[in-house]
Amino acid sequence: MFYNEEFETLPREAIKALQVKRLQQVLQRVYHTVGYYKKAFDAAKIQPDEIKSLADLHKLPFTTRQALRDNYPFGLFAVPMSSIVRLHASSGTSGRSTVFGYTKHDVETWTDLMARCLVAAGLTKNDIIHNAFGYGLFTGGLGLHYGAEKIGASVIPMSGGNTKRQIMILQDFGPTTICCTPSYALHLAEQAKAMGIDVKSLKLRVGIFGAEPWSKAMSDEIEKIYGITALDIFGLSEVMGPGIAMECLEGRNGMHIFEDHFIVETIDPQTGKVLPEGSEGELVFTTLTKEAFPLIRYRSGDVSRLITEPCRCGRSHIKMERVLRRSDDMLIIRGVNVFPSQIEAILVDIEGLESHYQLIVDKAGALDSLELHVEVSEKIFSESGGVKELQNIEKRIVKDMKDYLGISPRVKLVEPNVLQRSGGGVGTKVIDKRRI
Ligand code: DLL
Known about the structure:
The protein contains 13 helices and 20 strands. By secondary structure, the protein is an alpha/beta fold.
């Protein structure tokens, strides 16, 4: 089943021709409307009209998270604010978020791509979709929601949290589909079991899971526990949100990247060199149709591999394997993207702390758990009244982490020089014990 058969099954040559045409248009547009791109292209001594084929793409400079940060909040927008109808945001690398804007047309494009994803999962207007992706600045909730309405399905805008209520609604409303992070799906099943409910007895047929890394083994486990088909959906807010790539029901090996809207390249994260299709490397995306926030050669930080073999579903678009790992130090904790530098930015502002900390990420049941060990200054430890002071610092860290990052760690304050320092690299600051 297709949502837009013509574009989803375009012959490869036609896709490439369309990509070149759209690429040339978007390059002209960003060069003339976004100061950052004009500067970046001029510095690289490349002009938009010199890009004549896809093979020329590598001549253009990469866009990185740093560029997003330097142009915070709206500096990379290619349209005036009066044309923006929606803003989303996700965490940046330091204290500030990264902001994404959408024109009316962008929302329509995104909605169409999400509709493609849902149809690729075998859904129709007869389905009831329980959408437990978070609604709000995060793109998951609204992205899925618009796509679900577009295909005429009935959508339950559940959002995250309220697990017991979710279970009640899953029982009473009888949704055929669930959308959420894979770890939340396992958590829901655990909680349901504790309430004496077997999730196999629900009407669910399909699950659409993403927003965090998960393995084939985890997918098999979800399928077994729920008795459903578990499909992978990929996206990042910078490039659009969910709906950049989707696993189809027929193929079951990787996610189709919608190449009429995005060009994907694989690069060596160390050298930036473009790798042959099929090599493992960092995915780099160029948006072809976005109006408000076009991105040229955006380094996603996600390491995967492209699959070029034709898919039995009939879609001609290239596929990506499951995300294997990150090429940077970004962590995804309960679906929230977190950089160690953001934690540092919070700790630096709190008096009485040393700059050394250790973050221990683990699983508590199906969900991620987080422990933060921070060294406190000698003075606070030795002062009278220090205990009260320590309690205040602990409370402040917990509050600031919740307020700024949306995560709640257990905090342990330790004496100076207790935490391991070997080389001071990030590896010693973050211990990720999760096995996915
Ligand atoms: O997570 C968008 C999304 C929402 C995707 C709902 C799928 C479903 P961000 O918050 O910007 O956007 O986080 C993007 O999450 O760079 C990946 O590292 C990771 N990620 C997203 N989907 C997957 C997936 C949304 N299917 C970052 N598998 C990306 C593994 C994923 N990692």
